[in-house]
Amino acid sequence: MSRAFDARVDAALADRQLKIAVERTAGTAEAKRGAAIGAWPSFGAARERAAAIKDHVIANLGSYLVQFEASATASGATVHWAETADEACAIVVDICRKAGARSVARSKSMLGEEIGLPHALEAAGIGRVETDLAEHIIQLAGERPSHIIWPAMHKTREQVSALFHARHREPHVEESIVAMAASARRQLRGEMLGADVGISGANFLIADSGQVCTVTNEGNAELSLVPPRVHIVTAGIEKLVPSMDHAVHLLRLLARSATGAALTQYTTFYAGPKRAGDRDGPEEMHIVLVDNGRSAMRDEGLAEMLRCIRCGACMNHCVVFRQIGGHAYGGTYPGPMGSVLTPALDGLAANRDLPNACTMNGKCQEVCPVAIPLPTLLRGWREKSWREGLEPVTLRKGLGLWAWAARRPWVYRTGVRWAIRTMRLAGRGWIAKLPLAGGWTGGRDFPAPAAESFMDRYRKGER
Amino acid sequence: MSARDAILARLGPVGDPAVLAAEAAGLLTGEERERPVGGEDLVARFLAQLGQPSVAATHARIGSLAELPGAVAGYLAVEGAEPALWLPPDARVDGLDWAGLTRLADCPIDDGAVLAFARAGVAETGSLVFETSPEAPMLPNFLALRHIVVLEVAALVRWLEDAAPGGAVPRAHYWVTGVSGTTDIEGTYVRGAHGPRFLHVVLVGSPS
Ligand code: SF4
Predict the structure, then answer these.
(1) Is the Cβ atom of A312 under 6 angstroms away from ligand 1?
(2) What's the ipTM?
């Protein structure tokens, strides 16, 4: 492993607080999703349909972008295009400057994090109010998000309490999560309503109507986007869907996969600025369509990754993520989806450890609501890294052996079964030392794999 | 080359919108929707969904709009809340007798109650559907502590797809399926993160 990744993983594993915090939220999310999907017999068919919808859009992305541009423009919005993260940030900063903005209210957007928008706003001297509770917490802490749905997943309630006591004007008195949330409500209210510009991402862009869909359970998107004079949307080009009905199908999968609810509390479809006679709403609406490597991903074997609807289920169910949390991954996106995306966004050479830090247990693919073959895509990165000579000699030997075995399924299966048996014997249910990943097991708690490998269960039809 | 042209050049030729639309429509059948509720009573299903933990709304039923002020006053009294609320600039509220309730001139921004008329309700999820217009501002529904929503029984639809705007696309079309909640601290659910902490639906129309 590279030194930087190694050090981050070691630090994460040494942090007991982190383990407690991640386990509390991810464990709850896993249980709630399990109950919701368990009560939906057609989940399997629904996710195949969702994958087909996304594949259809990705294959015809140029056509849908042109259609969206025309319909959004007709609704009164201004559409901008950005090839890179820097271009996108420059467009946003320019709109803010023209609007004379001193402060912006931002509703959580992973695309915004991906393009470095918080930093770009700061560099331009524009104040930023993060309105999502978790984003507010990490803004106060000066940290990056560690999860795409729960950005402050790495913080325990005790840590949040200390932060609010240090930074809020009227912090909570009673030590409870309810009181802490109320403290944030008091702190954020005025700042949110007084912002000059509201900035959001988009969960979906509706091609035939030009609508931009946002989904939140706090209602902070609406509070951030309706009062200011200007609303700016930054969205990846893969967010397109043909119509609202297609968005509805995906929304059903998104909510259940993320939080276990049938639908998220607030789902809003925006179309342009305020109309004649309206009492609220922005005077200008701008939509920045961001490529930042997506069109290249489509044509370089990662088209399936563009199906991702950012639900977070793959990381909640990942044994590696549950041990090390999100920050150790080093990129904007953590967990299995991040391990596929980060090498594409930030380069393979610096991120070759990510696809290697995977147990290939297949759980992520099993829970993904758009059926992304995450293990296959990770394997693709491993092979590319090996072909390009990025792996150190010792690992190249190990991977060569792995590749040889992988091409001979019976050898591979026998090997995996043998390894599982050894681990269970050695650790009596807890692995003391994981072969080939010694750097991040070193005597720490690591859950043993299921008694049967994924492939064993797969063959028995237990998907 | 502009960024637009460069992106579109990489993505390849633009196809015929009519052909694409037909192909896209063919991808949707709606057959995986949870519980195909063929004969199930829409009202019963809607009320059951309102009671789900993620929605957790209360409700009352009245026969006609004339009973609305009484139902609202009753709700606020039971909750121990001030007998005051903000009413939208909608002609439907003007003909009613609001005596006994204070009509607030401005929408309360952190406490108090607001009333709103939903354009539709969705039995599938217990969602309330709103659209912005001069008579229906959006912000009040996200600011006050108590969100009181009036919904006609006749405006109930079965699926989310059935709630889509019929004619021109409104500036904002939004679905409310519960209150402002958060699970951002240790995954623990807290109500009233930024907006309403309580959602109360007044269903208008003949009880089934
Ligand atoms: S890869 Fe799949 S499971 Fe992971 S965030 Fe994306 S849609 Fe969700």
Answers:
(1) yes
(2) 0.96
